[in-house]
Amino acid sequence: MINIKKEIDRLDKKFVDQFKDIPPSDYGHKLHYNLISLNSIKPVNKVENRFAGQAITVRITPHDSILVYKAIELAQPGDVLVIDMSGEERYACWGEVTTLAAKAKGVVATIVNGPATDSLEIEKNNYTVYATNTSPMTTKVHGFDGDINIPVSIDGVVVNPGDLIVGDNDGILVIPKNEAEFYLEIGKDELNKDQARKISLESISIDDYLKNVNSFLDDKEINWF
Which positions are tagged coiled coil (predicted)? Predict the structure, then answer.
């Protein structure tokens, strides 16, 4: 059975673009969930520019990538493709041709819970791909089974179609679409705090700056030796 939802609920592009200014690591000061560290999933090449876009989700069987091409067809400029291969380690569903097709459609990044291939060609095309590993073995086009725009799981984080994906060279943030305004407030607040810390560090001595942590230790029993 193949299930395809053709459309996702769209957020305003200007609203989405605001998230490009906020690193996922700033959210890491506040959140303990919905953040994907680059451990099992890694960039195929260095992520030069932070991106933010809505998720087009795909779930495929390990050997069949026909729905990857269909998802690219359905994608709109600024989207992020999120492909769940259930941790497949051998067969790569993403490579040079899919990269060229995605770029032509205006897709900004691809995240694969499985392998990618053609890593040098992906780098030459300056396209952002996250994958578990690289492999010379590739999927084929069969049309066995799969889904487009259904909930998927990437490294233990649930991604729903239309969720907002923010990524850079440090990691990935998954923002539930219906909570995007709340997340933007958190992000702006943490970004302002981070900038304030930098200003404080530049305006006082390093010793005085480091003393700021002392208040967190005042009520602790410390064994000095």
Answer: none
Q: What is the pLDDT of residues 152-204, one digit of tens each?
A: 999 999 999 999 999 999 999 999 999 999 999 999 999 998 888 888 778 88
pTM of the model: 0.90
Which amino acid would we find at residue 70?
A: K
Helices and strands (DSSP H and E) totals, the chain? 7, 14
In order of 6, 20, 147, 160, 167, the CA distances from 74 in angstroms are 7, 23, 13, 16, 21
The residues, ordered by sequence, that sit 6+ positions from 4 with a Cβ below 8 Å of its Cβ are 67, 70, 74, 147, 148, 149
Binding site membership for Mg(2+): which residues? 118
Contact 64, 144 (CB under 8 A): yes
pLDDT band at residue 29, thresholds of 50, 70 and 90?
confident
CA atoms within 13 A on the CB side of 4: 14
Name, in order, each residue with C-beta under 8 angstroms of 24's C-beta and a sequence gap of 6 or more.
35, 166, 167, 168, 170, 171, 172, 173
Structure tokens at 119: 């890593």
Please state the domain extents for the chain: 13-186
Fold of 13-186: Glucose Oxidase; domain 1 (3.50.30)
- Convert the pLDDT of each residue in 53-110 to its tens digit: 999 999 999 889 999 999 999 999 999 999 999 878 999 999 999 999 999 999 999 9
